[in-house]
Amino acid sequence: MNTNALQVYLIGRPQAGKTTAFDALTDGGATASHRRVSDVPDTRLDYLNDVFKPRKRTPAEIIFCDIFAQKAGELQGRHGAQFTTALGDADMLAIVIRCHGELDVDGRPVDPVRALDEVMLELVVADHSMVERRMERVEKDLKRGQKEAAVEMAVLQRCLAQLEAEQPLSGLGLEEADLKLLRSFALLTLKPLLVLANVAEDALTTPPAALVRYGSGKGLRVVPFCAEIEAEIAALAPDEQSAFLADYGIAEPATPRVIRACYETLDLISFLTAGGPDEVRAWTIPRGTRAQAAAGAIHSDIERGFIRAETVAFTDFQAHGSFAACRDAGCLRLEGKEYLVKDGDIINFRFNV
Question: Thinking of the domain 288-351, which architecture would CATH place it in?
Answer without folding.
Answer: Roll (3.10)
